[in-house]
Amino acid sequence: MTDTSHDRLLIIDFGSQVTQLIARRLRESNIYCEIHPYNKVDAAFIRDFTPRAVILSGGPASVLHENSPRAPQELFDMGLPILGICYGQQVMMEQLGGKVDSGDGTAEFGRAYVSPKADMPLLKGWFKGGDEQVWMSHGDHVSKLADGFKVYGTSPNAPFAITADLKRNFFAVQFHPEVHHTPNGALFYKNFTDLAGFTGDWTMGAYREDAIAKIREQVGSEKVICGLSGGVDSSVAAVLIHEAIGDQLTCVFVDTGLMRMGESDEVLKMFRGNYNIPLIHADESELFLGALDGQSDPETKRKIIGKLFIDVFEKHAKSVGGAKFLAQGTLYPDVIESVSFSGGPSVTIKSHHNVGGLPERMDMALVEPLRELFKDEVRDLGRELGLPDSFVGRHPFPGPGLAIRCPGEITRPKIEILRKADAVYMDQIRKHGLYDDIWQAFVAILPVRTVGVMGDSRTYDFACALRAVTSVDGMTADYYPFTHEFLGETATRIINEVEGINRVTYDITSKPPGTIEWE
Ligand code: XMP
Fold it and tell me: N or C: which end of the chain has fewer CB within 10 A?
């Protein structure tokens, strides 16, 4: 369903790994936007979407290659403000009569500095301290501007770093204003949306009202079941849907046997204690652990789990008298990372269980009221709905649970060892008052045994890795800088208290290039 009650911005995605960050920067200024892949966007789509402005993202292709992606040509005659980023710039120039070249040593990757050439509205607040730091990532470059365009900023390797045709409100830049390494990039986008007349009407209060109206319209008087995992997303989705349709909603908490220590009790206590939402506790650990036993391929694990979740939900849809809808706490990054549009360059990183694993035979329709939100926005919505801070502030926990923290073969004993090690680690984090500084922390049990010595005996047990990251929305992350004392103390505790582990490592990979989970 198209929501046209807000000012809307359309991002046409050419497959850049950082397209989602454009949406993040815009959301921070309360701008409603959606990302759609270039090959799903034609002139009719744009007219139906009714955007107030359009952004063309970056992407890995070269406009010089045959059949490389383009924007619909009609877009440029619709009278809309357009901003092209990197590949988006090159597409604009190419489609509007300019020229793009490759080579000549003009590729740029990483930090660069842009010098001003002339002033214009998007540069309000820029160039105060002289040159501006920006982040470049391009092989090709614009070599001739399209008619009507002028240069407003240059960098050593990008003579056309900032260009615009102010008459038509077309802007085209070579760098990426959406990444943190362009420190004033958010302001650049804000200037663009100000110029396009956005009022910044995208707030959580407004979102809540819209979402409730949409849920009522979608569901009518039918019954809905909601998979509750205990994580923030599904909890917020459940409370929101309950506010919309009351007891037409039944929550199903599926205990997969892949939960953390004490998790099931905590979730049940929190929901039964605070909310009057009908809740089924489905203990399905035998089903899940049985199916996963011996599986080692990450995507296979995810697909098995996704399928079993649906089996369980379908069983309970019947048991509540025929639910026609299944509600899930799917987030925007889940949707985007799982999409690999045909002919498009964006690759499937992981099949998030609530998207990629869904078997096609499922005969319930999905209700996914958080589909347009990033993680931190879900937390804001949770607060808006009155969920306790202790709950809203919980670290994220993935639907597939401990299964994706057990790289290699899954066995019940390994999951049990992992659960115990994770509990010790979390206890350490809480004891040291670090829980709220860390975005997500967990242990992964590694598929390798190593030799150790305890007392006078040789041990031959599993190694584990501690993971802790800081992040805003899980899209990018840095490892958390624990002190050596903390790490030493935690390693000693895990080895002493958890039988089956004799070696502890700390994972210091950021995202990218790593992901947060190990699978
Ligand atoms: P990655 O590992 O992709 O994770 O960097 C980003 C965030 O998403 C969580 N995650 C999932 N959440 N179902 C979920 O509900 C999933 O299949 C899934 N896979 C990863 C992960 O824990 C992190 O917070």
Answer: N
Out of 94, 108, 132, 178, pick the active-site residue. 178
**C-alpha 284 – ligand 1 centre gap (Å):** 22
Q: What are phi and psi of 466, to 5 degrees?
A: -90, 140
∠ Cα 185 186 191 (to 5°): 95
User: Beta partners for 466?
Assistant: 443, 506
Domains in the chain, ordered, with CATH? 8-195 (3.40.50.880), 204-392 (3.40.50.620), 411-506 (3.30.300.10)
Residue 424: pLDDT band (50, 70, 90) is: very high
Enumerate residues 6+ apart whose C-beta is below 8 A from 197: 7, 52
Query: CA 400, CA 231: separation in Å to the nearest integer?
Result: 12
Contact 238, 228 (CB under 8 A): yes
Kindly give the distance from the C-alpha atom of residue 455 to the centroid of ligand 1, in angstroms, as a whole number: 39
* pLDDT per position as a tens digit, 8-51: 999 999 988 788 889 889 988 999 998 899 999 999 999 999 99
Name residue 298's amino acid. Answer: P
Say if residue 322 is exposed, middle or buried (CB neighbours under 10 Å; 0-12, 13-18, 19+).
exposed
pTM of this structure: 0.76
Query: Which residue, judged by its Cα, is nearest atom 16 of ligand 1?
Result: 352
For ligand 1, atom 21, the nearest C-alpha belongs to 398
Residues with CB under 6 A from ligand 1: 350, 352-354, 396, 398-400, 440, 474, 511, 515-517
Please tell me which residue in 33, 86, 251, 406 is annotated as part of the active site.
Answer: 86
Q: In the prediction, which pLDDT does 338 show?
A: 46
| Axis-axis angle for helices 204-219, 232-245 (nearest 10) | 60
| Atom 10, ligand 1: residue with shortest CA distance | 398
